[in-house]
Amino acid sequence: MAEPAAALFMVMRSRVFALAAAAALLAPTSARAIETIKLRLPLLETDFVIRVSELRSPQALMAGDSDLAELDRATGGAIGQKLKAVMQSNLPLELGAVVRNAQGSPLLEQVLLLVGALGDIDGLPEPLQPAQFEEAMQRAAAQGGISLLDVLEELPGDSVTVQLGRLGSSVQRFRAQRRQADQLVASLPAVSGQGPWLETGRFSTVRRELTVAVKHRPEPLAVVVLESSASAPASDRLVVISHGLWDDPSNFEGWASHLASHGYTVVLPRHPGSDQTQQRAMLAGKAPPPSPLELALRPKDVSAVIDAAADGRLGLRRPVNTQAVLVAGHSWGATTALQLAGARPTPSRLKELCDEVEHPSRNLSWVLQCNFVGSAESAALVDSRVLTAVAVSPPMLLLFDVESAQTMPAKVLVVSGNSDWVVPSGPEAIEPMGRATRSAGSGHRLVLAERADHFNLRSPQGDGGGALRGLLLAWFNAAAQAGPGVSPQLPAGGWGSSRHPLRDVTTTLPQLPSPVVVQP
Fold this sequence. Notes:
By secondary structure, the protein is an alpha/beta fold. It contains 17 helices and 13 strands. The N terminus and C terminus are likely disordered.
């Protein structure tokens, strides 16, 4: 089954990249916008032609000359009104906010996969300019939300074919995947947002950039170091933060600065095979998409950073404890953190589910996870020096064997946004964590962030640490005090956020049995 899964991934990825490039032309001076829609109804061989301009008002539709206009007149307006309601309904899960946060960020192409799931665009013009995507979506969002019609009116090209059956099932699936997270958020009070973990620490910080030679890559690894300027701060703990796909350490320097102000030494490696530089090269046609081998190379980057700290190659201002390291990551960086903590990748669920295009748990992160069919076997790269990990928005349902959670040497805190539809909470956090925490003593925890999407839990330089600054500090403090083999205990309050209220839902997760997977 690996070959069909790989083929499916290549088809989906090609569509994603094409749509990303097409949507880039959405500035006022871009090429002409799509004028017609070919509506392909289930079980019929004939397309109904619709003019985009006819869907804005009943008068335009009744006066139109498309197939839909004629059918609408024949049914007294009934058909047109129903189709207009579908086309003008806002796309699910705050697409506008996600798009604004996604510009220049990881997984932008997976955001656009929503459109690709609904239809095919014909006659894409060139040249393609990705920088203009955000501006067009902001114009559409200013009208009250982004609907499918808004997107179609802006997309350049000749026409778009919309599979009506796919439209309904995709939107319903996206909404259903979010429902369980919304229910959990509504059932619990938010953690208080006042406490010492939220306040900037007493130490000023020093920032440096350097490179470190590593054995597993041909070029040195670039890293950013933030540490306390004091000669003897309270902590000797080392934190390593791993960025996500097509992201950059700078988007996490807010986390790092907050931790460093409390005495931690923080190192942020740049993963060269999947950072923003690699994305720019890929979009310019100078590099292929990230290789599946990056699944193993990224954890090796973090382990190499720990090695460099241990043997003095980072030039740190004071010694750090490299036998009890704290790791945090976002998106693919969160997957990296889970690997280092001891989560065991498994090929069985990848092979089982990647070809099931109608699976109710299928979501946009499966594009990334299914890329690892054939490489997951070599990606079990636990590092015994990792004391604990914080995994923010990790794609993990397909990739990890939930049984490995019971024997992981490091305890993990998973954080997921209830408005994240790139890596939605339901299938990617609540379901696997519900299975992983069947045992009351597992020590792993899940925190849901209200109104948080896939991108707004990050914290760039100057942001003060963002919504997660108190949670990160409280968890790392608890882990450092608990020591190896002991489950950290989050305090009852004081690490919340007014921006994105936080709730520890671990004790209310559904106690799910392990899935039965037939071994190939």
